Amino acid sequence: MTQPQRSTATTEVDRTTRRSFLACLGTLGFGLGNLGTVAGRTSATINSPVTEVQQHKSPFGDPDELEAFVDDVIADRIGETTPGATVAIVSGGSPVLTKGYGVADTEAGNPVRADDTAFRVGSVGKLVTYTAVMQGVERGVLDLDADVNTYLDDSPVTIPDTYNEPVTLRHLGTHTAGFESTLDPEIVADSDALDSLETVLAEQQPPRIRRPGELVGYSNYGAALAGHVVAEAHDTTFTEYVHSEVFEPLGMSHSTFAQPVPNNHPGNLARPHDSNNASFTVADDVYINMQPAGSLTATATDMAAFMLAHLGTGAVSGTRILDTKTTERMHSRHHVRHPTVTNWRYGFHEYGSPDANLLAHSGATVTFTSHLLLAPDHGVGIFVAYNSKPSELPAAVVDEIVAEYGLQPAPATPPPTSEPGMRERAETVAGEYSLSSLPASGPLQVADQLAHLSVEPGDGNRLRTSTLDGDTREWVETDPYVYHELGGHDVLAFEVTDGGVEVLNMSSVPTGVYQPVPLQDRQLVTAGLLGTAISGFGLSLAARGAHSALRQWQRGRTRNKPEEDSK
Amino acid sequence: MTDQHVTHQQTDQLQESDDANRVTRDDTGKFTRLPWLARTVAIGLSGVSLGFVLLFSFIVGMGGNLTLITRPLAMQIALTLPYLVVLFTLVTTVGAALAWRNGYWSLSARAHQTLLALLGLVFSWLLSNLGFLTV
After folding, report:
1. B53 shares contact with chain A (CB less than 8 Å)
2. pLDDT recorded at residue A185
3. pLDDT value of position B27
């Protein structure tokens, strides 16, 4: 495999932050069950042969040039960022590049092959789960606005009536059900510790802490529940359903939610890797109990088929998994955080510039990362996966391809608002904010503390944001309480009521919204109290130690003195 | 020097001399075990608190926030320490109250014990606020 050196590549600044990393953690899950056929499925509207394919002018031109560009982009990362990667790019109704890079296993040294080496794709698998939900909607078996409890009569899972408003599949597909986020999709290190999906959902149910539909708060539990509803509505298991209704029709023969992946499953598995200063070692794999939330294993070739189905209005290779209207419905907005930022389609979130009509989802397990992007206006889909968990995620590769081929407009200098009072508004929104998609209980609250966003008035009429991990950015107010990033696509939109901020929406963080942090939870208060307590304890121990040493020395002198006197 | 002061000093010296063998030797045998316990637990509170912060920081520093999800054995051990901190804080606080009531030790030793109790209460609140007491 040739890996040409990366030459020139004007790239967007990689905005990989602790927040985005944690958000993409919301991916892991697990699946048991045998592959088989769905019982009781009768609809003829799905999986029917089709011939029409949406036509778009490919932005890539010569496929060889595209391959050379992607080779360049990946080359710098292989061996530095990840030991292996797999890439799929589709355009104009067919794959234009499916290629593996680096090695699937650093011990064996076997290369990654796009059509044979399966990667764990984490939360990108949620897109399969939500596609399955839309199939149920199309058949009339499921309703996006019905109480999910209506589908759980035969299940041990019940959603409590904490609020008057019920949780619906629309809430689950937009992460607005209001479940407390836990980040952890019930990861276990031993496959013997895996439970059935209904057991996990019944026993590990997080509390409902917000009214449904109110705010986005990324939820692995919600995605897993959506998969369970699909299974219950079709009287089968989740893994059986997606195998017969998504993977088989699309020819995704190397894809499965099953864990561990059965030995007789086609293809080879990329092994997970830990990294230490660009040195990679094979790691133990982990298993995800909330399987519809993140246990998918797939090749790049399979993911190309999945992207083509979505870009082809639900059909690929003569087979339809969704009809055109249902696909369009899935790709339409289902939850609007704020009109000026990225919002939620069904299962997908908008990505990059809010005006670019890019749909995406990232994914990660403990030792794999991935990113899938659709540009429906260009008929383009891009999928990139790593068999490692670097700080720079596969989204950075996708961003370079998007920028190179103009899939979204280049960042422009934002024009400042003509509304007077910019300084006052900047002072109104100044403060510390925490993300709704991070845990509000348990030790993982530390992750929330570390990810707080500080907002303060900047030079002139600008706004400045910063985080503990050094992500400092400047923003220009383009409309009252709406700020555009200098040199980037990001947008901040504050919702202010009675002179106080209720919610801060950040375009690059669609997985949640920021809310003001109460005084006792602010980083300065926490650091101050922690520093005081630890300093006090340390000084106390030091003083006791010194006192004890002094006493020992004095005792020694007292003991020795009579001996000296007797001489 | 007042009688009271003499009493405290004597008790303090007696207690300090007992630190090595942990044997009570006062005339009545009434209070010496409690002062020793209060002081020992206060030392334990300092040690466990520092140990928790160091161990937790080391684990997260080496393995990242994911160690809070995957919970290796070292993290499991670290996450039990906050409960020990709370237990030691309660005992230290009771010890400080008894020290003032029963006149254990010197004034500075009682102030030291009280300060440790206050630090323990602050640290316990912090641990609770950060979710370490909800595992």
Report:
1. yes
2. 81
3. 52
* Helix (H), strand (E), coil (C) string for chain B: CCHHHHHHHHHHHHHHHHCCCCCCCCCCCCCCHHHHHHHHHHHHHHHHHHHHHHHHHHHHHHHCCCHHHHCCHHHHHHHHHHHHHHHHHHHHHHHHHHHHHHCCCCHHHHHHHHHHHHHHHHHHHHHHHCCCCCC
Give the gap in angstroms from C-alpha A149 to the nearest C-alpha of chain B.
Answer: 29
Give me the percent of chain B exceeding a pLDDT of 70. 76
Any chain B CB within 8 A of the CB of A549?
no
Candidate from B49, B69, B122 with C-beta closest to A183: B69
Q: Name the residue in chain B with its Cα closest to that of A520.
A: B129
- Smallest Cβ–Cβ distance between A544 and the set B43, B79, B129 belongs to B43
The answer to whether the beta carbons of residues A11 and A167 sit under 8 Å apart is: no
Q: What is the pLDDT of residues A196-208, one digit of tens each?
A: 999 999 999 999 9
Angle of the B33-63 helix axis to the B73-102 helix axis, nearest 10: 150
| Residue of B14, B66, B114 to mutate, interface with A, max A Cβ within 10 Å | B66
Mutate to test the interface with B, among A204, A537, A551 (most CBs of B within 10 A): A537
| Kind of pairing between the strands at A500-506 and A268-269 | unpaired
Residue A468 has pLDDT above 90, yes or no: yes
Task: State the pTM of this model.
Answer: 0.83
ipTM score for this prediction = 0.81
The verdict on a CB contact (< 8 Å) between B126 and A529 is yes
Residue B117 sits in which domain range?
1-13+49-135
Whether B103 is covered by a domain: the verdict is: yes
Of the residues B77, B130, B133, B135, the best mutation for testing chain A's interface (the one with the most A CB atoms within 10 Å of its CB) is: B130
User: Nearest-CA distance from B3 to chain A in Å?
Assistant: 25
| Residue B74 distance to chain A (closest CA, Å) | 15
**Facing A444 at nearest CB: one of B68, B116, B122:** B68
**What is the pLDDT confidence band of residue A9, given thresholds at 50, 70 and 90?**
very low
pLDDT at residue number A46: 39
Q: Is residue B37 part of a domain?
A: no
Binned at pLDDT 50, 70 and 90, residue A43 comes out as: very low
**Are A500 and A439 a contacting pair, CB within 8 Å?**
no
- Number of domains chain B contains: 1
Task: Give the separation between CA A544 and CA A536, rounded to whole angstroms.
Answer: 12
CA distances from A154 to A30, A151, A157, B44 (A): 21, 8, 9, 53
Residue B133 inside a domain? The answer is: yes
B36 domain residue, yes or no: no
Task: pLDDT band for B71, please (50, 70, 90 cuts).
Answer: confident
Interchain CB contact of B43 with A (< 8 Å)? yes
Inter-chain CB pairs, A–B, below 8 Å: 91
